[in-house]
Amino acid sequence: MTRSIRNFLATHNLLAVSARQREAAMNTEQELDTTMLVDLNTVLNYQAVKTPNREELTGKEEADRLHDFGGKVAGTLTFSRAQPQHFAFLLGYGLGEVQTAPAGAGGFRHTIGPRSGEVDAARSNPSFTAAMRFGRQVMKRRFASCFIDQVRVDFARDGWAKITGTVKGSGKVADNTRVEDVTAAFNAASLTLAANGVAGASAAERLSNVQAVRVLNPATQAWEEAAYQAVSAAAPAVISMTPPGSGETVSTYRVYYLPTESGWMNLPSRVEEPPLKVSQLQVTVGGRWDGSAFQGGYPLSTELRTVTWTLKNNLAVESTPGAGGNYANRAFRTGREQSLKFDKDFRDFLLAQNLKDNDTLGIYLKATGPEIEPGLNYQVELVFPRVAVLGATVKVYQRRLGEEVEFAVLEDDTYGSVAAYVQNQVSSYAA
Q1: Is residue 212 scored above 80 in pLDDT?
Q2: Which element (helix H / strand E) includes 93?
Q3: N or C terminus of the chain with fewer C-beta within 10 Å?
Q4: What pTM value is reported for the model?
């Protein structure tokens, strides 16, 4: 064979994160503890910053060099069937402040709020480490110092709760790939790697995990594909191949492979939780939060079609002196922003009157799932102690009157702008 073919179905992708423990410092990888059940289209990508030298005096019409400035990491984590753990993870790192207390016999209640100060001299918000397996497998990649820049929560009718997090990363990455040069005769029938074994429990897996073998033809000085048939289970591994030429001239072989996995390459297991349904959401408007309970107000239920909350940290991930590598070494918020929107039937003028009066009110959202144990449920609560109506637009929806209401999320002197409370069986987030 010339080159082995791997399973590159996206359904085999995996994404793992350090959900429970934040990184101790910028670009210091944390142990991965949870594999997340994200949507199929979720991918974290390394975005290289490479610049052709078109603006330099090269003596040529076109560029003749590519400058490598390193890069950053970007992506979106989407949970279309959001579980309480997904809220706790994204909001814990997105808002930045988490306190956890035992609840019941085997549960935990996580109190999550906006961080007012900095984590340390390099970070406004805590950072986590992530890793992805691409296919089964093309490669694995670890991403240090990932930050949640934005969070969007959607409760839309006839559906599941959905939460999405926008990721920005420093650009420090590590792959499980290896490229090794081996010196051997041009007519060699096997190659022995320097030290590593090849990943895979079976002969077929090991063969698949050697992705290419190329040989430098001593006559033409061109790299050519070499055919290989088997890979041993030993360490170092021995690759059996068809001799690419007839001469004994010493040449260079370049082997592209995945080594025997260890450390971060062994991704952790998932935490199993029930997803939350929109029908499980309770919405209370107009009351007052006293720090432990929402007092007063009135419920919205059948008149609601969609509730959407958006959090933006406006994080700037930057490279400054002392980074020590081709990646960023600081990430600071430039100003947190939030918005809250309702899409509802226009059955009364109550919220329109709030807009007219320019007064403030509280909003309370509570999504309750199945019981963890008697008297303790999987649960997510979102409290907005002080909001004001920014706009109330009347429209026609399926021959009935509708109203799109946008709220400004304001910071209360006592209780801040938002508080999230998540109940599940995980002992910590971003700790």
Answers
A1: yes
A2: helix 84-95
A3: N
A4: 0.91
